[in-house]
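Re: the 155-residue chain
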Amino acid sequence: MAAPAGFSTKQLEAWHMRRGGLTLNEIGVRLGVTKQAVSRSLRETEFKITSTLEMTAKAANIETRHLDASKGILLGFSHETGESVVVTFSARHGPHIWHHGSRRCDGCALHDECVKLILDEADERGINLTEAERVKPPAGIARGVFSRVLPGVEP
């Protein structure tokens, strides 16, 4: 699977390992580089993630309320829809927008694709979902996933 545009596979591996709780030294050993190289790479990666999240939000007219590049998540608000919005960055899929209260999932042609995306997000973030959580509409699954990623996102 190719890395999202502008990111190297190694950058995303290091970012994923850091999100998983590994130290800079542990990441360096696994990647065969110095701790300092890991630190530089993570700073550059988080800068790119911040830019990606901000540009995605701006393009969709989403007001940024909170951004955490280390977790690849932006909390925002859409004045157009009157909904809270979560913009995420995934090593597998790049940026994606999740509307908090979306009721438009039923009958949507993208329903199955959205379910796959949010389940991939949960897997990438190491979040185990119950079977009851996995069968909710995509917006409901997303609320459950992101409430575990960042306090303030209500399920």
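The longest strand covers residues 83-90.
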